[in-house]
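Before relying on records like the one below, remember that each one covers exactly one chain. Contacts with other chains, cofactors or solvent are not represented anywhere in the record.
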Amino acid sequence: MVDLENEKGQAKDESKVKGGVARAEALSAEDRSDIARKAAEARWSIPKTNYAGELNIAGSIIPCAVIETEDGPIRLVVQREVVGLLTGNKKGGLQRYLNPPNLQPFLPEKFKNKTLDQATFVVELFGKKAHGFEGEDIVDICKMYLEARKKKKILPNQQHLGDRAEIIVTALAKTGITALIDEATGYQRIRARDALQAYIAKVIRKELAVWTKKFPDEFYEEMYRLKKWQWFVNSTKHPMLAAKYTADIVYSRLGPGILDELQRINPRTEKGRRRNKHHQWLTDDVGHAQLAQHLYAVISLMKVSDSWEQFKKLLDRALPKQDDIQLRLFN
């Protein structure tokens, strides 16, 4: 007797296969590659890092990475390579070096409360799956051996591990591992960007403040004198060039990224003027304090200058543009 249900099922399955093949053939090579990549990431269920590099610790090359999480960046080192750095043998994993009973009193707290799987991460690094743990764990594990050796609890077959741990700790301070990983992976640029954003948030307010006078008359009076413009007492309207010079001698030197952010949130109108004054966007506690201090210094330089060119030379020497400072530091 013919099994109709079975034949229908087989026909349906064959139809699905043919349809899948047809769809696959219709996809471009780039689309197929993207689908395969996403499938692999889903299968591994691991984060992929865009920040990867290599550390040179005590003569050994250790792959490292930075992964970004909701709780902040995590700096990782590849477990296998660190085991090799410490023991001279990359095989067998780290767990067997944490298990000996004589080491348990000195075991880092992190590894006391978690299994090794819970204390480590799996990431895609250089196109491969890698097991890693946080960079500072290197120092804590080394300290475990050093403390055991100090208390004379280390076993003869562990003595070489204590010696090796001493070499590693000498070459690598715990306070420096974060900076080293950031430098090796290129993540220091992101760290600098985050620090810059935090600074700008302190200087520039989110909402426009009511206008109040922040620039003393003598600032413009000295500008007019040095530029040889005619000065009118109590003048409130200034040529557009005055705004350009103010951006140059004040806001571009006030702090890193300040002028760019002010120009972004306070753009020019179709007539070429700003809708508001830049200083209306500065915070009361930090931004206005920095502005007042900067203006005092600028006016002092103006008063001792006989020409605009002389003033600019003094200004560039005493109060250089923040972008110029960053460029010199970068170089």
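The chain has a mean pLDDT of 78.
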